[in-house]
Amino acid sequence: MPDPCSYDYAIVRVVPSAERGEFINAGVVLHCSERAFLKSLVHVDEQRLRGMWPDVDLDLVKHHLEAFPKVSAGDPAAGPIAGLTRRERFHWLCAPRNTIIQVSPVHSGMTADPEATLDELFKRLVIALR
């Protein structure tokens, strides 16, 4: 078993109404510098989102959310941001935004397996809330 290493993560949120302080967790971004790991998982619960925002443009929300895994992977289809270093991409993904897609403050932890940790965080913070 590899030694534990530190990681940082943030929760990706859909924010239908910033004024009301409401949001739905829609993804997780995890970065582990020691393991050269940066990955995002996203999912939008359409039923919950429509319940909070009946006239939501789901295609637009999904389009913006799909950028997170692409940028994380360095996919050239994500544009020039994908060409940044792993650390720079993580910081860009976690930068504060004033849009319908926002990101939580960055949290830290220790893991021996960043992939398994990302999966566990995603299940606990996004999928389990459906």
Number of helices: 4
Overall residue-averaged pLDDT value: 93
What is the first-to-last residue Cα distance?
33 Å
Gyration radius over CA: 15 Å
- Uncertain spans, ≥5 residues at pLDDT below 50? none
Note the main sheet. Answer: 5 strands, antiparallel
Helix and strand composition category:
alpha+beta
String of helices and strands: EEEHHHEEH
User: How much β-strand is present in the residues?
Assistant: 25-35%
Tally the structural domains.
Answer: 1
Helix content: 25-40%
Oligomer: single chain
According to DSSP, the number of beta strands is 5
Any idea what the shape is? globular
If you had to describe this structure to a student in words, what would you say it looks like?
- There is one protein chain.
- By secondary structure, the protein is of the alpha+beta class.
- The protein has one domain (5-129).
- The chain has helices at 46-52, 58-73, 86-93, 114-125; strands at 5-17, 22-32, 37-42, 101-103, 107-111.
- Strands 1, 2, 3, 4 and 5 form a five-stranded antiparallel sheet that branches.
- Strand 1 (5-17) and strand 2 (22-32) form a beta hairpin.
